[in-house]
Each structure stands twice: as structure tokens, then as C-alpha cells.
Amino acid sequence: MKRILRVVVTAAVGVAALGLIDTPVASAGCAFPNDTGGTAPHRSRPQAENRAYRPASFMLASDQGRHDGEGDGIVGLWHVMFVSRGSQYIPDDTPIDSAYVQWHSDGTEIMNSSRPPATGSFCMGVWEKTGRYTYRLNHVALSWNPDGTPQGPASIREEVTLDRSGNTYTGTFTIVQYDLSGINVLVPTPIVGVMTAERITAH
User: Fold this and answer.
1) Any long-range contacts for 109-112 (C-beta under 8 Å, 24+ apart)?
2) Whole-model pTM?
3) For residues 157 and 136, what is the distance between their CA atoms, to the nearest angstrom?
4) Rounded-to-integer distance, Cα 61 and Cα 70, Å
5) What is the pLDDT of residues 54-75, one digit of tens each?
6) How many helices (H) and strands (E) does the chain have?
């Protein structure tokens, strides 16, 4: 059955709503609640894949990461724009989030999303250095429906390349929202796209 659902579009200067016909709901930010407060449609994830998203695996990036002086170039505060690119349900170039992200020297990360705080605007991750200017981030979020009921865990995976100036980075992301079981994927995820970031300094 066709439904009219919304994608919340966040720009750097504010928040605007973009109505999408016959497209499942996505809200800008760490995860994607249904705007009716109910549980979104889902599909099962293969059991073999489940292990990659269990809580114990979220420590692996930090444990394996190399956080030497060169690797710490990513450390700092960033303004990051997420834009859909190649997603099945979300049109290309749809803004997904405008967030403030802090990468820490101990291999952890935290993001303050532009999504409503009641639905979970803060989420955390772990990162590792994969090359001279490249990094991998495994980001974890707990999502809530607008009515205050829990929705389930979300996974945001990023591959990032730091500019040689150290003041910008670009990359790709994949966002998957699960139900409370941590097994079933909620539509419209996975969402894939590209990101651009600018460093925020004290000056």
C-alpha cells in the first residue's frame, strides 16, 4: 500500500522538510524514526551478518586502530554534512544530516546530530586509521520513536579521507537502522551517501 511519508532535510543554516511520495520515512540524524511514532516496516538480515552488528563488535575498531601522531590528524571538532547518494529509497543529493562531530585521540568519537533530541540526537563510535590520510568509523546509535518508545540500534559506517591541509575531509557512509531485536532492518535503510566536513577551530 502506498504511503506519503517524509524525509527531514537539514541544511547548515536550518531545518526544512521535504515531502517524498511513496518513500518510507527517514529523519536526519543518528537513526530514522517513523513520524507516526509506530514501528517502520522491516526486512530480516541474514543470520551470518548479524554478528557484525552485535554490541561486542563495536570495540574492535578502537582495539585495532593505530593512533600515532600521524593518525591523530583526524582528531578535533568538525561540522559534517551527510547527503544521500545511491540509496534505494532516498533520492540522490537529499541532505540527511548536518552534525557536529568530535574525533578523540583515544579512538572514540561522538556526534551531536541535528535530529530532535527526543529521538536520540547523540551517538558514539570508534575509529581506526587505515592509511596515511584514511580512516574507518564504526558509529553506534540508540534510536527512539517520537512517542518515547525505543526503536532499536542503528549502525553508521564511514570511510573517510582527510585532506592534506587537515582542515577538511570527505567520505562515504552507510546507515542501517534495526528494530529492537537488532536483526530486522527498518526501511528506508540502508541509506548510503557521501559526506563533507570542515574543521572547527578555537580561532
Assistant:
1) 109/137, 109/139, 111/30, 111/80, 111/139
2) 0.72
3) 8
4) 17
5) 443 333 333 334 444 455 899 9
6) 2, 12
